Amino acid sequence: MLFATGYLTQRGRGEAQQQLCKYLRKTISIRDTFVRKELKENFYHRMLLGLLAFKGSWIVSSNQEDGEGYADILVEIDDAADAEPMGMVIEVKYARDGDLYTACRKALEQMEKRQYGDAFYEEDIQKVLKYGIACYKNKCKVMLAQAERLCS
Predict the structure, then answer these.
(1) Contact criterion met (CB below 8 Å) for 56 and 98
(2) Which of 6, 89, 113, 130 is the most buried (most CB within 10 A)?
């Protein structure tokens, strides 16, 4: 959804967060996440899968083995014949204490430490966008770490 609407550009990161937060405020009640703390992250994970699944040409995977662990969401994007393919890795965290910034940083650190996105590089996809998304009730924060790897 974010890519198709043009919000996955460097300039659009703030807009992506605003749009996602706007969507959460309109559609999610605090009662929707009224589950045990360890399951709250699953709610947001599934919601993002649903949003990303609308683009039929994308390959969207959930909890796929990648690097040294299991990435929450992997998306392979190859929409245009003249554009190079791109990969997207999304790690979702529930900010139990409401600290969205720290939860986003933890998501990005987990992706780096466990080398999420390596499967894309092995498929010769050199542009990989890595998103840490933190949620708390009907609020969210989106952080982007872009990585491009050159093959030798």
Answers:
(1) no
(2) 89
pTM tops 0.85: no
* Separation of alpha carbons 71 and 129, rounded Å: 13
Asked if residues 121 and 79 have their Cβ atoms less than 8 Å apart, the reply is: no
Top-confidence residue, 94 or 20: 94
CA nearest 77: which of 10, 8, 19, 142?
8
Question: Looking at residues 18-28, what average pLDDT do you find?
Answer: 66
Residue 85 and residue 124: Cα distance in Å, rounded? Answer: 9
Take residue 47 and report the two structure tokens written for it. 């919601």
Give the CB-side neighbour count of residue 57, counting CA atoms within 13 A.
9
Q: Which contacts (CB < 8 Å, 24+ apart) does range 15-24 have?
A: 16/142, 17/140, 17/141, 17/142, 20/133, 20/140, 20/142, 21/138, 21/139, 21/140, 23/51, 24/135, 24/138, 24/139, 24/140
How many whole angstroms separate alpha carbon 124 and alpha carbon 78?
Answer: 13
Question: Taking a C-beta distance cutoff of 8 angstroms, is the pair 104, 132 a contact?
Answer: yes
Q: Could you read off the pLDDT of 106-139 as tens digits, one per residue?
A: 999 999 999 998 889 888 888 888 999 998 887 8
